[in-house]
UniProtKB/TrEMBL annotation:
Keywords: ATP-binding, Coiled coil, Cytoplasm, Cytoskeleton, Microtubule, Motor protein, Nucleotide-binding. The gene is LOC109714487. Its main location: cytoplasm. GO terms for molecular function: ATP binding; microtubule binding; plus-end-directed microtubule motor activity. This is Kinesin-like protein. GO terms for cellular component: mitotic spindle; spindle microtubule. It holds the Pfam family Arm. ARM repeats lie at residues 560-602, 601-644. GO terms for biological process: microtubule-based movement; mitotic spindle assembly; spindle elongation. Residues 1-261 form the Kinesin motor domain. ATP binds at residues 4-11.
Length: 812
């Protein structure tokens, strides 16, 4: 962690990329360089997350759309994780530097959007390192070795490490930095997180049993990173100037406390249950097939031995048979020879003469006997060999039987090993199941959080839609005001002449009144307004002077006096009346004049003029003046209460002059924007008159009518949604729907949009559904949904179609 006051080099120390010069690299890059140098892609994985904490909200700098990322703490191990944050595997150092750059760009963009600086947020780099260990030897000696002994005795392990590099926000105190407003809010959050970090450091330094990590998100995040089993390095940055003395001393004190903390670094080894499970599964397969193979081998061997035994027995029988035959032959030959010797001896006795021959024969016979004896000896040797062979075969049979016994005991031990491995397997399965359950719980929690945020997003979307439609309406109003300003700019040019004429008429009138002795009437009228006590006509200024003031209507106001101008509305001279009403209409266009005009009886005078005059110009300009006054909410009620809607409707019914109709429609359209007046407007014939003016067919008139309908429908829809009104739309009661459906595509783009907007607002009210369907409105809604040029109107159409089952079945 880098800690210190703003501008003292935390980011310089921790975050510099040093792309061109490696000696410029900060700790983040150097740390990754070291890690990558001592890891191998075969057994290790290195991944990072990069985040910033601003105003207690955690934002992913690698995926900036992810904000408010939840912090999850494992209740058993105390490990902190951020399941919502992006975790990116690092391929090499260049890849890492690229990610840091993206993170910095996102941090800069996010902070510019929030109008803050980087030093107001905490930046965190989380590096996850994972190593598959060569596997640890299992102590249990009972486990039975199979052919691949070295691998069977080991359990796969994962060595997990986490490196957290934190660039903390500036630690300066609020009172010193003089923060206020949004800055103060920021400073409070920074203070909250750094103060709670300080508290945790104090508690750790004092070996306190309770460490208050829950007080801020920063300390919750760092929970498994300071104290306990982690190794923590704290970098302190200070400003060398004497100005920073107090910050420097508090920073150093903070670090002194931190130095008291004693940590015991502990490696986190975890059984890689997945690999273990795969391995045990493989072992079971292997042992099963090995057992089958051994059994087959034993059966084959037994068959082979039995065959060999049979062969030996056959050979033995053959040898015995041969031996018997030979013995019989020898016996025969022996008895034959004995007979011959006997015969020769008898011959010896009888034939002494042939003694020599006889003795020769005897010698011959003796040699033959010797030979026979030799053969007999050989036979006995042969018998001995036979006995030896038989013995040997017997021994071999015994050996084979012993081997068979060995095989049987080996098979039993294999079976035992198989059972034990199966037990291991089921244990691994149980642990795996346990891990799956934990993963399921985390998933459940995540989906709950997701649901919660989805409903919040929906709510925000709804508010956004409403704001969009509000914005669009304001935009339309603005546009119409702009049009009006343009119109008035043109009008003002002609006003220059009007003012001249008016002044002339005013002075003549005064002279006339004075000469007729009625001057007091004007004087008293003027004193009513609290203005000049005595009307003093000023000398008429030159054309050049007035021309210099022509854009400053307020000056005319001051110069002539409002009460005097209003008095001229009652002049008997039509020309004067016309000029006066034009000036009043013009003054009424300015917000600041409206209140005074009404206060000084201008509204009454205008309404009287509308009622009594037969002149078209008077009607047109008066309606325009009333339209201007009707822009102001507080005047709308006055106009209505004094029968304004009736008078306007009356004028509309008597004329076909498009300019007059445009003014009248504009005035009624403004009154439509006040939901409280809707019923009265209907009763006084205002809505009927507004809709009746479509007969003119003039684009400017139709534009005002469409604006009025949109104002009306929008306010009505709002009143219904807020529960202020119920029932069918008053517009529908006045048969506006047929005209809207028939004409929604025939006019200019802005008029069309007003009609579409009105239509969509009417469709939000269930009570209007029947009429909307019977006038072919579903088709119209679908058309708006597909074709309208404005997104907020399309959204309104979609909302109406989706929320009303009658519409949905109508579509089908
Ligand atoms: N050791 C240094 N050598 C040269 N320049 C430095 C050094 N330390 C900081 N600077 C420079 O001082 C300025 C402020 O530094 P840096 O932005 O790192 O401060 P910081 O403590 O992170 O500030 P903050 O809390 O406002 O983010 C930078 O322009 C930086 O380049």
């Amino acid at each position: 962690m880098a800690y210190g006051q703003t501008g003292t080099g935390k980011t310089y120390t921790v975050g510099r990329l040093g792309k061109d010069d490696p000696s410029e690299r900060g700790i983040m890059v150097r740390a990754l360089e070291d890690i990558l140098a001592s890891t191998s892609s075969r057994s290790d994985s290195v991944a990072i997350s990069y985040l910033q904490l601003y105003l207690e909200s955690l934002q992913d700098l690698l995926a900036p759309e992810k904000t408010n990322i939840p912090i999850v703490e494992d209740p058993k191990t105390g490990e902190v994780s951020l399941p919502g944050a992006a975790v990116v595997d690092i391929r090499n150092l260049d890849h890492f530097v690229e990610l840091l750059q993206i993170g910095e760009a996102n941090r800069h963009a996010a902070n510019t959007k929030l109008n803050t600086e980087s030093s107001r947020s905490h930046a965190m780099l989380v590096v996850h390192i994972q190593r598959s260990l060569k596997e640890k030897e299992e102590n249990d000696t009972s486990s039975v070795a199979i052919s691949d002994e070295s691998s069977s005795r080991h359990i796969p392990l994962l060595l997990k490490s986490k490196l957290l590099i934190v660039d903390l926000a500036g630690s300066e105190r609020i009172d010193k930095s003089g923060s206020e407003g949004h800055m103060l809010e920021e400073a409070k959050f920074i203070n909250l997180s750094l103060t709670s970090l300080g508290k945790c450091i104090n508690a750790l330094a004092e070996n306190s049993p309770h460490i208050p990590t829950r007080d801020s998100k920063l300390t919750r995040l760092l929970r498994d990173s300071f104290g306990g089993t982690a190794r923590t390095s704290l970098i302190i940055t200070i400003g060398p100037s004497a100005r920073h003395y107090s910050e420097t001393s508090s920073t150093i004190m903070f670090s002194q406390r931190a130095m008291k903390i004693v940590n015991t670094v502990k490696l986190k080894e975890e059984v890689d249950y997945e690999t273990l499970y795969r391995k045990l599964e493989y072992q079971v397969d292997y042992l099963t097939s090995e057992l089958d193979r051994q059994q087959k081998l034993r059966v084959n061997e037994k068959v082979h031995m039995e065959k060999e035994l049979k062969e030996y027995e056959a050979t033995l029988a053959e040898i015995e048979r041969n031996f018997a035959v030979k013995s019989e032959n020898l016996e025969k030959e022996k008895s034959h020879l004995e007979l011959e010797i006997k015969k020769l001896k008898e011959d010896l006795n009888t034939e002494k003469a042939s003694k020599d021959r006889m003795s020769e024969n005897i010698i011959q016979l003796e040699t033959s006997v010797k030979h026979n004896e030799q053969q007999q000896l050989e036979n006995s040797l042969y018998q001995k060999v036979l006995a030896d062979t038989t013995k040997m075969h017997e021994q071999k049979i015994v050996e084979l039987l012993k081997q068979l016994e060995d095989e049987q005991s080996r098979s039993a031990s294999l079976e035992k090993q198989l059972n034990e491995t199966k037990q291991h397997l089921s244990e691994a399965q149980r642990l795996l199941q346990m891990q799956e359950n934990i993963a399921k719980d985390i998933k459940k929690e995540l989906s709950r959080l997701k649901e919660e945020s989805t409903s919040q997003i929906k709510l925000l979307q709804q508010t956004n839609d409403e704001l969009l439609s509000e914005k669009a309406l304001i935009y339309e109003e603005l546009k119409s005001v702009q049009e009006k300003v343009l119109y008035e700019a043109r009008y003002r040019k002609s006003l220059e002449d009007e003012v001249l004429k008016l002044k002339k008429a005013l002075s003549e009138n005064n002279a006339d009144l004075e000469s007729r002795g009625t001057y007091g009437m004007i004087r008293s009228a003027s004193s009513l307004g609290g203005g000049d006590a005595v009307y003093m006509p000023r000398p008429i200024k030159t054309r050049e002077t007035i021309s210099g003031q022509r854009d400053t209507i307020s000056k005319i106001f001051e110069e002539v006096g409002l009460s005097n101008i209003l008095a001229l509305l009652r002049s008997e001279d039509l020309d004067v009346q016309i000029h006066a009403v034009k000036v009043v209409a013009n003054l009424a266009a300015e917000d600041i004049n409206q209140e005074r005009i009404v206060e000084e009886g201008g509204l009454d005078a205008l309404l009287l003029l509308l009622e009594t005059s037969e002149n078209t110009t008077i009607h047109r300009v008066t309606a325009g003046a009333i339209a201007n006054l009707a822009m102001n909410g507080s005047n709308q009620g006055l106009i209505m209460n004094r029968g304004g809607a009736r008078l306007l409707a009356n004028v509309a019914s008597k004329t076909d002059d498009p300019q007059t109709l445009r003014m009248v429609a504009g005035a009624i359209a403004n009154l439509c924007g006040n939901e409280k007046l809707h019923v009265m407007l209907k009763e006084d014939g205002g809505i009927k008159a507004l809709l009746g003016m479509v007969r003119s067919g003039h684009n400017d008139v139709i534009a005002q009518i469409a604006r009025g309908i949109a104002n009306f429908a929008k306010c009505e829809s709002r009143a219904i949604s807020q529960g202020h009104r119920k029932g069918r739309s008053l517009l529908i009661e006045e048969n506006a729907l047929n005209w809207m459906v028939a004409n929604s595509t025939t006019f200019s783009a802005s008029t069309r949009r007003h009609i579409e907007l009105a239509f969509c607002h009417l469709a939000q009210n269930e009570e209007n559904a029947r009429e909307i369907i019977s006038t072919g409105g579903i088709k119209e809604l679908v058309r708006i949904l597909q074709e309208s040029s404005r997104e907020d109107i399309r959204n309104l159409a979609k909302k109406a179609l989706n929320s009303n089952p009658l519409f949905l079945s109508g579509i089908q």
